[in-house]
Amino acid sequence: MQSPIDLLDVRVQVFPGLGKLLRDYRAAPAAVKNRGHDIEGDAGKIKINDTNYHLKQCHWHSPSEHTFNGSRHVMELHLVHYSSQGGTAVTAIVYEYGRPDRFLSKLLRHITRVDPGEEIDAGIISPGDIKFGSRKYYRYNGSLTIPPCTEGVIWTVIKKVRTVSREQVKAIRDAVHDGYEANARPTQSSDGRTVFEYTPGEI
């Protein structure tokens, strides 16, 4: 079961039992590498099915990898988490053009200075500054979207599309030296898998 996929509202199964996304992020040291940053300290965690997944890395794809009802957006942020049992959980936020993203604004001065293979100390970053904008999300089982595209990944895709400025998108694309089209994996077949949607208050 590979990722990303097209998230079709007509095919998702609303499941309130998923519950509110439990996240507990905190400020931690980080190092910027090309299009994202690795977390060097304890940046907190999310909890899925009573398992804690610790945030270890953030990166951006432009254009977006997941599509909503066939529509691709300008950028996508991946928050990559790992459990002590070796599990992987990724939270994705999709962006369209609009107001600048505050979290990205704080990191851009580091990202734009990084050359291929180089690493720059970004100081203390706070993942808690990343705004989801909604409690609604999609949940499905898939894979990493970069080689080796390992399967068994729990995906949480925030339903609300956030905004990012054109200048910020350009900076991210310029930082990805292999060209932005190569930075986003094409959507993969859903292969009949179930995609759940958590919407507060719906039954």
From TrEMBL:
Gene3D superfamilies: Alpha carbonic anhydrase. Its main location: plastid. One of its GO terms (molecular function) is carbonate dehydratase activity. InterPro entries: Alpha_CA_prokaryot-like, CA_dom, CA_dom_sf, Carbonic_anhydrase_a-class. It comes from the Eukaryota. It catalyses: hydrogencarbonate + H(+) = CO2 + H2O. SUPFAM superfamilies: Carbonic anhydrase. It is found in: Plastid, Chloroplast stroma. Residues 182-203 are annotated as: Disordered. Reversible hydration of carbon dioxide. Belongs to the alpha-class carbonic anhydrase family. This is Alpha-carbonic anhydrase domain-containing protein.
